Amino acid sequence: xxxxxxxxxxxxxxxxxxxxxxxxxxxxxxxxxxxxxxxxxxxxxxxxxxxxxxxxxxxxxxxxxxxxxxxxxxxxxxxxxxxxxxxxxxxxxxxxxxxxxxxxxxxxxxxxxxxxxxxxxxxxxxxxxxxxxxxxxxxxxxxxxxxxxxxxxxxxxxxxxxxxxxxxxxxxxxxxxxxxxxxxxxxxxxxxxxxxxxxxxxxxxxxxxxxxxxxxxxxxxxxxxxxxxxxxxxxxxxxxxxxxxxxxxxxxxxxxxxxxxxxxxxxxxxxxxxxxxxxxxxxxxxxxxxxxxxxxxxxxxxxxxxxxxxxxxxxxxxxxxxxxxxxxx
Length: 329
Known about the structure:
Blueprint: E1 26-31, H1 40-53, E2 56-61, H2 67-79, E3 85-87, H3 95-103, E4 108-111, E5 121-124, H4 127-142, E6 145-152, H5 157-170, E7 174-182, H6 187-200, E8 206-209, H7 214-224, E9 233-237, H8 241-249, E10 254-258, H9 260-276, E11 299-301, E12 304-307
Parallel strand pairs: 1-2, 1-3, 3-4, 4-5, 5-11, 6-7, 6-8, 8-9, 9-10
Antiparallel strand pairs: 10-12
Helix pairs in contact: 1-9, 2-3, 4-5, 6-7, 7-8
């Protein structure tokens, strides 16, 4: 994991604007999972960036979690030698394509899930810290001890890191993880996992869901099994609309979500700085490339925000602009 962390505010002040004169620049967003509900806010951020900067952003990859299709798409995009690429490394399958982009001199920014040391820059959560923050919310609502169930999308780098941080933060407390299952970040699989855990662990006092599909699955499982909303402390992740309804009903106490749209906006902003504003020529040394110095910071951690009953209405997507634009497709 990258060790350097720079404050977001330092990079959010450039007024690049949409009115750049000249030929429109094209960037690519290449990743699996683009049709998943979680990714709605990623698309929202890219749409907003496309309009603000007057650039074209082309999506390539898969709507499901098929990394093979996304990897093939990344290989094809690299061959086109675009001005820049944004990608997500939910698993290591994307790494060879990311490396090829770097070797070809194409700026490539990784968002959401880190890819080791690959990519010019990672923008997203410090996912281990996000796991620790999840534990803080669990203790806030559930106290210092209890029996905990956990579901998540095991094998996804960001979710595995969140689980690592959760377990680390609970060491030395009275909390015991009595069961965990893979929900595959998919609604039906997560529901099956949640019901199975609840049926097999009646002693459980709390439930944590670490990916975007988990919160709604836990709430639905509680309803179908006749478990009252106040019987379990439930801490979820992200901001899928179905999960927000369970915060309103009291089945989910809180959810932690990334500043997802901002993450994608910043990725395009950095590519714009690289393409149009001499970013690589910032005078860190007399010759940055010869000195082996990357001008990019190693990572920008975007930090979670907490959704609870008092602010949940503000996260409803029907309260937000859609930013439909032909510049993102």
